[in-house]
Amino acid sequence: MNNKMLAIITVLTLAACGGGNSSNRASGIAVDKATVQVISNRPDLVSAGDVLVEVVLASADASDELVLLRNNTDVTSVLQSTPDNPLRLLGVVEGLSVGENTISANIGNSITVVNHPSGGPVFTGPHIQPWECQEGATDEDCNQAATYQWLYKSTNPLLAGLQPYDLENPPTDVATTTTDNGETLPFIVRQEIGYQARDQYTIFTLHKADESWTPIQPQSQWNRRLLVTHGGNCRGDHDTSSARTDDYAGTIPGNPAIEQSYITALSLGWSVLSTAQLNLGHNCNLSYQAESLMMAKERFVEQYGELRYTVGTGCSGGAITQNMIANAYPGLYQGLLTTCTYPDVMSTATQFADYHILLKYFGLKAENPVAPTTRDGTIFTPNQQNEIYGHLNGIVNASLADSALFGEAVEPASNCGGITPEERFNKDTNPGGVRCDVLTFMENMIGARERFPAEDPLRDHWSKIEQDLGYGFAGFPLGNEGVQYGLLPLQQGIISPAQFLALNTNIGGLDPSLNVTQARLKPDYPALPNAYRTGILNTIVNMDTVPIINMTGPDPGAAHDSVHGYWVRWRLERELGHRDNFVHWGGATALIGDANYMNQSLIAMTSWLDAIEADTSATPLAQKIIINKPADVQDQCNGVPGVMCPEAAMLVFGTPRTQAGADKYGDQVQCQLKPFSRADNYGLGNTVWQEEDWAALEQTFATGVCDWSKRPLEWQRTVTWLNYQDDKGDVITGGQQMAPAKFPAAWASPAFSKTWEPTWLQP
Hints:
Elements: H1 3-16, H2 21-26, E1 34-38, E2 46-47, E3 51-57, H3 62-65, E4 68-70, E5 73-74, E6 80-82, E7 85-93, E8 99-105, E9 110-116, E10 147-153, E11 162-164, E12 176-178, E13 184-186, E14 188-196, E15 199-206, E16 225-229, H4 261-267, E17 271-275, H5 286-304, E18 309-315, H6 317-328, E19 335-339, H7 345-362, H8 382-389, H9 394-410, H10 438-441, H11 443-446, H12 464-469, H13 487-491, H14 497-506, E20 509-510, E21 516-517, H15 527-534, E22 548-552, H16 563-576, E23 582-586, H17 597-613, H18 621-627, E24 636-637, E25 640-641, E26 673-674, H19 691-700, E27 705-706, E28 722-725, E29 731-737, H20 750-753
Parallel strand pairs: 2-9, 16-17, 16-18, 18-19, 19-22, 22-23, 23-24
Antiparallel strand pairs: 1-3, 3-7, 4-5, 4-8, 6-7, 8-9, 10-11, 10-14, 12-13, 14-15, 15-17, 20-21, 24-25, 26-27, 28-29
Helix pairs in contact: 7-9, 14-19
């Protein structure tokens, strides 16, 4: 009997007797000759039945003794030594059962690995139902074997993008490319398409068809960098969809004369990953997005190899996703490339909710978008309305935001994928039907409406439908209580006291079905505090450990205000005292700045991250980002380095809340209140106000007016890495922070993860 067989028998015997490392020590067996860790994810978040394991040997002799066990089964054969270090062994351990597993070495430590189904959930809580899987799915979790196809870049300039490649009959117009590590090869790409978390993922790699690729020995052209693409808008579909890769997916058409940045990345040796759930226009739930990205990164590492770093890119909803994940689940990205930028979902929703309420007050309809007469008969000119909106083209901007974004996203009776008209909510015919609004879609994060909230325990806050059904709908975190719409235009003499009084007395609020109510809108609990806690209102407080290049152009007046990118910058300055990890590129092209910025920013971000990666000191990552920012990676305006475009040139406008006196940061979901006072500045002086007008204002603002000098009501720091399910799989509304753990070693080079050990990225 050889030594290895004897070691296996000994370990199995000890395991059967309940022995662990302490038993090994008692038996005189060495326990310090090998160190085992899982590196493709943290051990308790593993999915799909496999995990990449690292074993580091103390000496070459230890390899003869080593036995690696998965739940008492010998899996040593999966291990291979890495080319650069024969004492470092890697291998993908398969066959993990759902739940707890043990991976152990006979001459080292053991690890408990918690494996989750390929369809999830891992940390998001119970699956949203109903759900429609893709054709070909093998089970209700939409699992389906991965498929592969081949693509290539043509030398024909009329053939943009990637074309189908036939391995049996190769085309003759295959372009060549030289990667950033200097290797020249045919521009041939392999695409993997699979399903995780009940939705599609895709992976692109510049690939040599005649060579093998393993996570231990990837092909030489790969530079170990990963680009992640996203999609725009904000919806909550109930079915599988396709991953998006185009730069402005779901927002604006790309320029066929400009190469998509993911193809540029491939040409340089990057890999590219996307998932359907990273398309905000399909999945407007931050926790689902983060889980999808985490699972896809684990899959990538286990199939293709260890990463140096991951960079996100995207416009509109693609910027929202990057910003929210970087703040709430830091470490999934090491760099952000954002354009058409919003900081998050809920800041935008607040502005657009004000638009919706104002549009209803002004009586604007598609067939009459500039009606001068409101529902109470007060006349406002188009210019006065624009001033109240805070935008040069406020009427148009508000109308587009309402019809194309807010109305569909928040309307429970709107269309959503996977739900038939018969299944969908209808307040008259099917009040218990599926609600397709995004608030319902993110209910695990914000929670259902409290019926008798603590601040008003004697009043039933549920609608008649909720009372009849016996349960509350998803909470609405927004409120407009105390907002003095048009205050600045009043003070500037643009609107009259009579107009100001009529507007604020009659503006009202919204009910859960977006119907206008006489009373102002009060935010629901626990939705309001949970908006800040979970990160769907981005507090920015955890974003100092990620470099950002933000691209912007003049405000197009199409519900993508240029000010939204400034919100990110301004919040960084407020919370961190600087924005040194944030580079701002302005340009003349509306919304995006310049059509070449996407590709240029990829190159700039590469140089920045490479410099950080080379810094192996113990300096905290937030400081490394600043210290190692290359001199040529800086603000620019129309190609002029070192300066920011003037806000006037970028057409940076305000919002209805800044026109009501709010601060510039855009995160006042609901203000704190102070008593109404006639001594405040109400325009032309007290002589123009009649006593009955003052009385009407005092009644309108009986609970107070906004105190914009204070933090928003219920503001709190975003808590990182929240888990939304307990040990039984039941939902934890608002989430609970995960226990400390080491950063997954294969997600990024040590320079990006060292400062996060041993805690799991706590705020």
